Amino acid sequence: MRKFRVFVFSVSPLEKELLEEELFSLGCLGIEEISEKEFKAYFPDEVSLPKEIEEKAVNSYILEDRNWNEEWKKYFKPVKVSERIFVVPSWMKDEFQIPEGAIVIYIYPGKAFGTGTHETTKLSMRLIEEVLKPGDSFLDVGIGSGILSILAKKLGATRVVGCDVEDVKEEVEFNSSLNGVSGIEVVLGSVDKVDGNFDVVVANIEKHLLEPLLPFIKERALGWIVLSGILKSQREDFLNFLKSLGLKVVKELEEREWKAFLCRK
């Protein structure tokens, strides 16, 4: 059975951002945010980190792989995202009582990010609901499970395209079928591989991965840009970066440690 080595770090918000970037350069498989200052970094169990990095960890341990989908089922319950948007695990499809006028999205927790439980996903969905109009075109940068694209379809978007550096097409198609929607185009690669322009462009990606993509996102956008995945501690630095690109922030939302921004060119 595959094993992982998990390092737990507790540092200042500024050092946290820099440390996360360095950890990814050293082969980090993923980051789990615990609080504004504390996070877990996942590596293959055979990893050997530089001494000065390993000494910053307050704890480390070996984690055995497990059936993560079954683990999710223990904790993944229906989520009320807004007054009319609900995210429901697929195995509860027959028992969930749909409120009148609600938009329900059924999701199976596979490998890709996006179950509707994370703050950044909920913030993205609220802003999409606010600005997307029937007939709009929609681009989902880092489509993951397809949850945001499925929402766009249910809100009346016509052309819906999602791109991802991971091959998530099968997962997006499965979740689409659960929701009775079709026609979501999945592009393997980053935003620079996508053709055309879109009324609404969304990216729910961590700051260090999002910023290099923003010039391409701006090029693809005709109007609204929804950006999520930014920690509160990163707000000022991120706003300065948006300003340098000529993007105007129209609205900000936050939940716990996370921020989301609604922008226009």
Automatic annotation (TrEMBL):
Keyword S-adenosyl-L-methionine part of the UniProt annotation: yes
GO molecular function: protein-lysine N-methyltransferase activity
EC number(s) recorded for this UniProt protein: 2.1.1.-
Predominant location: cytoplasm
Catalytic activity: L-lysyl-[protein] + 3 S-adenosyl-L-methionine = N(6),N(6),N(6)-trimethyl-L-lysyl-[protein] + 3 S-adenosyl-L-homocysteine + 3 H(+)
SUPFAM superfamilies: S-adenosyl-L-methionine-dependent methyltransferases (SSF53335)
Subcellular location(s) per record: Cytoplasm
Known function: Methylates ribosomal protein L11.
Family recorded in the similarity comment: Belongs to the methyltransferase superfamily. PrmA family.
The name this protein goes by in its record: Ribosomal protein L11 methyltransferase
Gene: prmA
